[in-house]
Amino acid sequence: MSKLSVQKARRDRELGIRRRPPFNARPISAAGRADRSASGPYATHYTATASWLYINRLAGEDRFGPVPEEYLLKNDLIAAGMCHPLQRMPAELRTGNRIWREADEAAALEGPHAISATHIVADLPPNAEAERWRWLVERYCYDNLVERGMVVSWSIHAKPDADGGWVTPPHAHLLCTARFWRPNARQRDRQKRWLANADQIRVAEDAWLELIGLKPGTPALLRAV
């Protein structure tokens, strides 16, 4: 990181601001969990199970124990659902978090650096209605993720303030499978074609930006902590 970047990051911290790009895909793994506070900002994202609880604003626990529940007070959940290949999805995986718990179990057997899922956070157009947000999310998931074989649990978060602005700017969470989930010999193995490298993530990002009307390379937005 350059000296200028370090100075900018320090200034943002002092002002209580963080910069988040309009599309961000993060692999979920338990690596580094022991070195961070249990109540830290990413404490829920070390397992797919905890991330599913987080994006759905639900209390619960993952294989490490109870998940920090500060997010339950946000009161910003607009909608949530799941997108999946309709004909191939086993009925027992179509609701709840079983698919994410099984992915976590497989990752745990491989070690702390193993990836259980991918968590995407993507900005939504603030001037659109909630139904439009839902349409954008589901259209994107089916056209760009499910089409490639992935399963996606999604949610939309937004909360307006009293002055016409946002306490929580509208954004979508997409929890995407990183492992085979069909009941065959490869079930739970890592899938190397699903958001597994920078090129694949860049294609996914460009598709989202095009769908919501932004150009690739759009700079990071400011977010209050």
What can you tell me about this protein's structure?
The chain has 225 residues and is an alpha+beta fold. 28% of the residues lie in helices and 24% in strands. It contains 5 helices and 9 strands. It has helices at residues 3-14, 48-55, 98-110, 130-145, 198-212; strands spanning 17-20, 23-28, 61-62, 65-66, 77-83, 117-123, 152-160, 166-177, 221-224. The strands form 3 sheets. A 5-stranded antiparallel β-sheet has the order 2-6-8-7-5, with helices on both faces. It has a two-stranded antiparallel sheet with strand order 1-9. A two-stranded antiparallel sheet has the order 3-4. The radius of gyration is 17 Å and the shape is globular. It starts with a helix and ends with a strand. Residues 220-225 have low confidence and may be disordered.
How would you concisely characterize the structure shown here?
With 225 residues, the chain is an alpha+beta fold. Helices cover 28% and strands 24% of the residues.
Distance between the termini: 22 Å
User: What gyration radius follows from the Cα positions, in whole Å?
Assistant: 17 Å
Determine the fraction of residues in helical runs and give it as a percent range.
Answer: 25-40%
Strand content: 15-25%
Question: How would you name the oligomeric state of the polypeptide chains in this document?
Answer: single chain
Tell me how many strands there are: 9
Question: Strand pairing plus helix content: what structural class?
Answer: alpha+beta
Tally of DSSP helical segments: 5
Largest sheet: 5 strands, antiparallel
Write the H/E string, N to C.
Answer: HEEHEEEHEHEEHE
